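[Amino acid chain]
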Amino acid sequence: MMKKMLALLLCAMMVFGLCASALAEDGAVHITYSYWGTPDEAASTQAVLDTYNASQNKIFVELLCIPNEQYTTKLQAMAVANEMPDCGIMNENGVLAFANAGLLADVSDMYEGKDSQPLDCVTFKNEGVTPVAFSGCNEILMMFYNKDMFDAAGVDYPPTKVEDAWTWEEFIDVSKKLTIDKNGLHPEDEGFDSENIVQYGCVVDNWTWQLEVWAQSNGGSWFSPDGKECLINSPEAIESIQKVADLTLVEHVMPLYLGLNDEGIIRSVASGTVAMATGGAWNIGTCMSSSGIDFGIGVLPKMKEAVTACTSGPQVVFSQSKHLAEAKEFIAWYTQEENSWNLIETGIWMPLLEKYYTQEEAIDTWLKDEEFPIKDYDMAKSVLVDYTLSSAKSACWYYTPNTNEFTDLLRSVLGAVWTGDQTAEQAITENFDALSDTITEDF
């Protein structure tokens, strides 16, 4: 790991060497806020920073955008060079490793005296117990679907209530009804041409971290609750991966994809080629609301249990900052929902605090906002609020360190599973020791 960081050091210094905060000629303390996300998210984030900068004259916050895929390794290189930003959103998979290395400032008192606390499922906990950071918002996985494709097939929309969640078998059956070859045939029809499919029924996103939810739904897990033991070789976890692969290999209802990029919704429902797909809530605002597609949202199908994953990068203050007080002051301001409301009302973020899921007035300020893209209040409340409270589980990086290395290796390992060259059992068994070793690596 250290060799990898040193190799990136020169590049990081060249790209980010001018980012250190300083007292500028205008008398304000200039601090840098690092960020990853889509161009739409960056524009919304800049708008929030503009509001803050205009609201006072003692702190000026500059936005530093780093591509999501490079975020953790860039920050690691910057840490070695003592050139970290003052504060920023963290890529989830690096939080605990950074905290354990002493690179995050103490923000444990951030919500003292507030009228609501962050959701427990988006609280980062060392060894699964001690809170070390809070996410800046909440995001859950759900089902997105094209209403027109369902209407044309005469099929009921995906359920919005967790108690009505499809079983995995029901999900496959519906996906077959929505999969069409060039001759208008479905997978269960005689003569169906699996080599010439013009509309697929589903995509279950195999971007690596999103697969963990299926292990949990199948009664298993990738890691022990304290994050110290890798359990991805359990029968439940292996079976869940194989079931996802078989949607392509056996059922012919999902296009082949190697899971190398985080673009499941963009390449499926948003493209108009797939009837339904799993994806994060952020897709409401980042692509679906501008896609021109009449879409809806529903709960995920279940293998054994109804489960959704929640995640979001935390807002942190880096301990290397020369202006800790100013960085903490800004982050404390920024993490108030009203100060990043444009990200919530446009469907890019879900609120962080419990009150937006438990208090009717707070829920309504969110879901009844005139800018919120989903106008069906009952649908939105059932999926975004009720589903979160009943079924959301923390993604692995909330309690397991070094998941960046784990998911990178797992992504490589699973390539042969998606193509059918190996079974999930073969791939996981052959690579289990290496996968397990990644979570014990030092920063």
